[in-house]
Amino acid sequence: MPITTLMHISDLHFGPPFLSRVSEAALRIAYRLNPDAMVISGDFTQRATEEQFQQARAYIDQLPPVPKVVVPGNHDVPLYRVAERIFNPHRLYCKYIQKELNSICDLNGVRIVALNSTSPHRAISNGRIDHETLVFCEKAFQGVGDDIFKVVVTHHHLIPAPDYVHDQTMPKSRRAINRFVDLGVELVLGGHLHRAYIGNTLDIYPGENRERGVIIAQSGTTTSRRGRGREKLKNSFNLIKIGDGMFRITHYMYFDRLEEFAPVSRHTFPRPGREFVEGMLNLSDFPEEELSDVT
Q1: CATH dotted code for 4-285
Q2: Is the pLDDT of residue 46 over 60?
Q3: Domain residues of the chain, as ranges?
Q4: Shortest CA distance to 247 belongs to which of 149, 179, 173, 144?
Q5: Model-level pTM greater than 0.70?
């Protein structure tokens, strides 16, 4: 199968925390990287106002003309407009970003299932993937062959980042992880933490099937000043390249001196049933992204 490329950005936070110069750099590199799809994992706005959603929509329309995979974040539902949060929490998100809260995107050999993890009534900050959303996910992957690369996108994190910032894990996250493993999901993309983490669910939770977990790729905040932990006041995104035998995630960060994003680390994983045996997987299948001098 040809290489499929996803550019994964998150936590834009249009409103007071939004950084215009960084957003412009993200646009520039998006066109240079030429992804097959853009993934935006929630928190388009800071306070879910109509003006902020309008600004987010205008920005999305400037991104490369490829499929956009989107999910709402907790900041995309009203926090202080209580009546709206109770009775119609996703009104503006559905008006300006996407009508569907859960969606499916098919690319060359890849199926991406985007799941709404916001929980405006029960867990507004840390979210929840409820039973109905898991049923949607099960139906979305039903009958999809093992040759298809299966991706899930949520806003909230399934496992905490392994750092000194202690995050509360999404309620019922273990239920979701176990279901994703059963469904053959290979990669989960998320945001919310405002710093990147690339690893495996087995790093934190052994799960019911200890033979394999799910690779997790969290994006930091791509365009706001709300970075946390090691990415405090920093901005980042991830680039995912998916091939037949393996996939690779490259983590990009914004550097003020360059006024550009540049890659800072790469993580390569074999697909299920494959191993890193010399000569078995061809690393040349993944042409290198341009490297910049960031010293």
Answers
A1: 3.60.21.10
A2: yes
A3: 4-285
A4: 149
A5: yes
